[in-house]
Design goal:
The structure holds 2 protein chains of 2 kinds.
Chain A lengths: L13 H12 L8 H27 L7 H15 L6 H13 L63 H4 L24 H4 L44 H14 L1
Helix pairs in contact in A: 1-2, 2-3
Chain B lengths: L1 H13 L3 H13 L4 H10 L1 H9 L4 H16 L5 H16 L7 H8 L11 H13 L3 H7 L3 H14 L3 H11 L8 H8 L4 H6 L1 H8 L2 E6 H11 L5 H10 E6 L6 H7 L39 H4 L10 H5 L20 H15 L12 E6 L6 E6 L5 E6 L4 E5 L5 E4 L2 H4 L9 H4 L1 E7 L1 E4 L6 E6 L5 E6 L3 E6 L4 E7 L5 E6 L5 E6 L3 E6 L7 E4 L5 E6 L5 E6 L3 E6 L5 E6 L5 E6 L5 E6 L3 E6 L4 E7 L5 E6 L5 E6 L3 E6 H5 L6 H6 L8 H4 E6 L7 E4 L5 E6 L4
Parallel strand pairs in B: 1-2, 3-31
Antiparallel strand pairs in B: 4-5, 5-6, 6-9, 7-8, 10-11, 11-12, 12-13, 14-15, 15-16, 16-17, 18-19, 19-20, 20-21, 22-23, 23-24, 24-25, 26-27, 27-28, 28-29, 30-31
Classes of the chains: A mainly alpha, B alpha+beta.
Organism (chain B): Galbula dea
GO biological process, one term (chain B): transcription initiation at RNA polymerase II promoter
GO molecular function (chain B): RNA polymerase II general transcription initiation factor activity
């Protein structure tokens, strides 16, 4: 919008003329015409807020009418709330003195991108991957994802798939702590013993939560700790859409 | 004094502060004459001060209430001793460990005004002084006229603060026209302060009241003034002078009006001489010598010397000059600086190669200027920066976006997503190329994140990061490899007006509305240093080429130079008559050029702390200043749609730096702006807001087309 001169005094209402005069007194000569409207709106809103507050104070003090003291009090209270001003000079000098006393921290060499701790950065993912249902990924879509077990290890192939359990699953119960082979074969997936025998082959909702790992970056011998992987409780309910939704809720709850 | 005590007792009784009253009564009877200690002992008991402080409406106001109510009772002016007692009491309270909340308020109030005589007589006092000064000798008149402005403002503020509205108004009406023209903006602000409540929110005015206005006056003029003011009827003015003004006396010839006009104008008067006496290491850091890798890209026909040329360090012009330490350069490890990575070394090699092909500029060989006009910006372009190798340009806009363009034919590419990265072959030689995503390459990348207009942008020297600061109070760090925001640095809670990366990366400085500049490091979420001292917003912040000092320009019309190591202010430069909007250090680190809304470019010698030049010519605010790569030409861009080139070599040669000038701090500035002006280049209607010399000394300029 192009800045324009003041609105012609003849056609503008009295308020607008007063506002234009105020702007002129403060030395502002060039402004868009909508500035006057904005200023008037602000003035009206501010004054009504103050007067309403003043009415409340005066009725609280059981006075018959609003007087200057009420208005003064109303202004004071509102000022602390809405209009903050920068801290006073001695306060700034004080904190500056404190801050400037600590020596500059040494810089660690070769530390990669120098960023603050992750908590203070905006680099965390702000999304979660949805459950992969009916995902036609490269392998056969039967995926069992076991519940989290600490110390679990599973080696993944370089392709980003969670392989089928049916083929080479070695059902290991982590509670027993049976060591899992780390060799470069396909993979081993633990399944809690309760389900191991029965429904190993049943397609369960392959919920994958928080796949933070990039499978390609993990060599065959790497130890991978997968977290937050929820197993479907009842493999048989997979066909039931309601139950699936319940599982979804479960997924979110566990996180 | 007895009367004063009685008055205080009466007041305490009226306010129902029985305890304090008892204590005071007891003490006062105990120590008959020693008024000072009695009040002090009252103050040291926490109940005394706290009780006083606890009376509503506000803590600071009650103490003033003591001061103010006494005259109201008996019409007596408050003796200066009582005021001193209050100060003493306050000092005791502070020393005694009593936590008086709103302490800054209290101290501000206490150091402010007490009744200095009858308000109706203020006009008399002032006009009396005016008469005296106008009748004094010519040589003294210019110096003594410096008194008018601070005296006027302080007297007016005192009247307002003590709620003599009508007197204040008539005082203002009568005398505001006498002030110098360059104070008009301040006077306008002052005219809107008619009540005591108005003053509370205005931090700049509060700071003005509490800080001392500095005047530099020669000894002779000072004697004259002192003699006159110490006559009885002018005692009031003498009191004000003693309280609010700091008179820096120097021995020597009184200054002429011209000299004074060049140096005054700031909100706090001039700089005290000892403010500019600290040693400043303005030399440059030594470039590290390293083996320049021999590559066969030398297509300039030097191939035959390419291979056997093992003596590459000879080309390193900085390192070869002198092996001993430049006395004016800071030690290499004075402040910790990031180490040189391989990519930085490659960059330096490129820099040296380009430097070899650089055009030598001078009055006979002016640079060509390439102007980048931002179209369709609708007055929204608020900040521009260009990388050092001139490959990218960034614009910060009022709609809170930050837009990055590639200036070269090479498009902007971001790194591939994690999924795609898994598919590439990590062992290949060109893996750095393979990680870049060609599918989304474009000339323009838009960065969203701020919630207010973006007022400052800065590229990091290694071109990996971009900083932007905005009205929402945050400084954001963006990655130029993924074009996403990495960190938001929250510290200023008010608009941040400018930010800049250090020439070595890692550190950056920001300055904003809260009147401080902050030094940050990219890996600390809180600032490392806070530079507090300005009386008004910090509008411009720049690093010195050796990264050990930071220059800040402010709306209080001063430029301050701060030491990064300990946060001290080592230089104060006054002389501009408007807020400073552009700063530029010369490449050799010795000089500083500053531009402000008054259209003048001032040149400063950092080592001596003096003003060494004034370049007049622009008619509007100067938003861009830049020295050429070797410091021969100074380019300035302004809102008056022009770019001007000035001869920097000539401006800095033969400076008088004899003992007198360094002692007194002022030199005679020759009127040579016309001689130094090498060229004026006009754009049609595009204000110039950024200037940049490429490595080969081509001048790039940027601005947004404004159709008027």
């Amino acid at each position: 919008m192009e800045p324009a001169k003041m609105a012609s005094p003849k056609s503008a209402p009295k308020d607008a003329q007063v506002m234009a005069q105020i702007l002129k007194d403060m030395g502002i000569t060039e402004y868009e015409p909508r500035v006057i409207n904005q200023m008037l709106e602000f003035a009206y809103r501010y004054v009504t807020t103050i007067l309403e507050d003043a009415k409340i104070y005066s009725s609280h003090a059981k006075k018959s009418s609003v007087d200057a003291e009420d208005v003064r009090l109303a202004i004071q209270c509102r000022t602390d709330q809405s209009f903050t001003s920068p801290p006073p000079r001695d306060f700034l000098l004080d904190i500056a003195r404190q801050k400037n006393q600590t020596p500059l921290p040494l810089i660690k060499p070769y530390s990669g991108p120098r960023l603050p701790p992750d908590r203070y950065c905006l680099t965390a993912p702000n999304y979660r991957l949805k459950s992969l249902q009916k995902k036609v990924s490269s392998s056969a879509g039967r995926i069992t994802v076991p519940r989290l077990s600490v110390g679990a290890v599973s080696s993944r192939p370089s392709t980003p798939t969670l392989g089928t359990p049916s083929a080479q699953t070695v059902a290991v119960s982590t509670k027993v702590g049976t060591p899992v082979s780390l060799t470069g074969q396909r993979f081993t997936v633990q399944i809690p013993s309760s389900q191991a025998a029965v429904k190993a082959a049943t397609p369960t909702t392959p919920t994958v939560q928080n796949v933070l790992i990039n499978p390609s970056l993990i060599g065959p011998k790497n130890i991978l700790i997968t977290t937050n992987m929820v197993s479907s409780q009842n493999p048989a309910t997979e066909a039931n859409p309601l139950k699936r939704k319940h599982d979804d809720d479960d997924d979110y709850d566990t996180l | 004094d007895r009367q004063t005590l009685v008055a205080v007792l009466q007041f305490l009784r009226r306010s129902n502060l029985r305890e304090s009253e008892e204590i005071l009564r007891r003490e006062a009877r105990l120590l008959g004459d020693d008024l000072g200690s009695s009040v002090a002992t009252v103050a040291s008991s926490s109940s005394g001060v706290a009780a006083v402080a606890a009376v509503p409406p506000g803590k600071g106001e009650v103490l003033l209430g003591i001061a103010g109510s006494l005259p109201g009772e008996g019409g007596r002016p408050l003796p200066a001793q009582f005021y001193k007692l209050l100060l003493y009491a306050h000092a005791f309270a502070v020393g005694g460990g009593v936590v008086v909340e709103d302490q800054p308020d209290v101290s501000a109030v206490l150091s402010a005004y007490n009744q200095q005589g009858d308000p109706a007589l203020y006009e008399e006092y002032y006009s009396g002084l005016k008469h005296f000064i106008e009748c004094s000798l010519d040589c003294h008149r210019a110096e003594l006229s410096q008194l008018f402005y601070p005296l006027f403002v302080h007297m007016y503020l005192e009247l307002v603060y003590n709620q003599h509205e009508s007197e204040a108004k008539s005082f203002f009406e009568r005398f505001h026209g006498d002030q110098e023209c360059y104070y008009q903006d301040d006077l306008r602000v002052l005219s809107s302060l008619t009540k005591k409540e108005h003053m509370k929110g205005n931090e700049t005015m509060l700071d003005f009241r509490t800080s001392k206005f500095v005047l530099r006056i020669s000894r002779d003029s000072y004697q004259l003034l002192k003699r006159h003011l110490q006559e009885k009827q002018n005692n009031q003015i003498w009191n004000i002078v003693q309280e609010h003004l700091y008179i820096d006396i120097f021995d020597g010839m009184p200054r002429s009006k011209q000299q004074i006009d060049a140096m005054v104008g700031s909100l706090a008067g001039e700089a005290k001489r000892e403010a500019n006496k600290a040693k400043v290491f303005f030399g440059l850091l030594k470039e590290p010598e390293f083996d320049v890798p021999l590559d066969d890209e030398d297509e300039e026909g030097e191939n035959e010397e390419g291979k056997p040329k093992k003596k590459k360090p000879k080309k390193d012009s900085v390192g070869s000059k002198s092996k001993k330490q430049d006395p004016n350069a800071p030690p290499q490890n004075r402040i910790p600086l990031p180490e040189l990575k391989d990519s930085d070394k490659l960059d330096k090699v490129m820099n040296m190669k380009e430097a070899a092909r650089r055009v030598r500029l001078g009055p006979e060989c002016l640079p060509s200027i390439c102007f980048y006009t931002f179209l369709n910006a609708y007055q929204g372009l608020t900040a521009v920066d260009i990388t050092d190798d001139s490959s990218m340009i960034v614009g910060g806009f009022a709609d809170s976006t930050v837009r990055v363009w590639s200036v070269t034919p090479k498009k902007l590419r971001s790194v591939k997503t994690a999924a795609d990265l898994s598919l590439i072959d990590k062992e290949s030689d060109d893996v750095l190329e393979r990680i870049m995503d060609e599918k989304t390459a474009s000339e323009l990348k838009i960065l969203y994140g701020h919630s207010g207009p973006v007022y400052g942008t800065s590229f990091s020297p290694d071109r990996n990061y971009l900083l932007s600061c905005s009205e929402d109070g945050t400084v954001r760090l963006w990655s130029l490899q993924t074009f996403t925001c990495l960190v938001g640095y929250k510290g200023h809670n008010y608009p941040v007006w400018d930010t800049q990366f250090s020439p070595y990366g890692y550190y950056f400085v920001s300055g904003g509305h809260d009147r401080v500049a902050r030094l940050w490091a990219t890996d600390h979420y809180q600032p490392l240093r806070i530079f507090a001292g300005h009386l008004a917003d910090v509008t411009c912040t720049r690093f010195h080429p050796n990264s050990n000092y930071i220059a800040t320009g402010s709306a209080d019309r001063t430029i301050r130079l701060w030491d990064v190591l300990n946060g001290n202010c080592v230089r104060i430069f006054t002389g501009h008559k408007g807020p400073i909007h552009s700063l530029a250090f010369s490449p050799n680190g010795r000089f500083l050029a500053t531009g402000a809304t008054d259209g003048r470019v001032l040149l400063w010698d950092i080592g001596h702390g003096l003003m060494v030049g004034e370049l007049k010519g622009h008619t509007d605010t100067i938003y861009a200043l830049r020295f050429s790569r070797d410091g021969e030409i100074l380019a300035s861009g302004s809102m008056d749609n022009t770019v001007r080139l000035w001869d920097a070599v000539k401006a800095f040669e033969d400076l008088e730096t004899d003992d007198f000038t360094t002692a007194t701090g002022h030199i005679n500035l020759p009127e040579n702006s016309q001689d130094l002006l090498l060229g004026t280049y006009m754009t049609k209607s595009t204000p110039v807001i950024h200037l940049h010399f490429t490595r080969r000394n081509l001048l790039l300029a940027a601005g947004a087309y404004s159709s008027q």
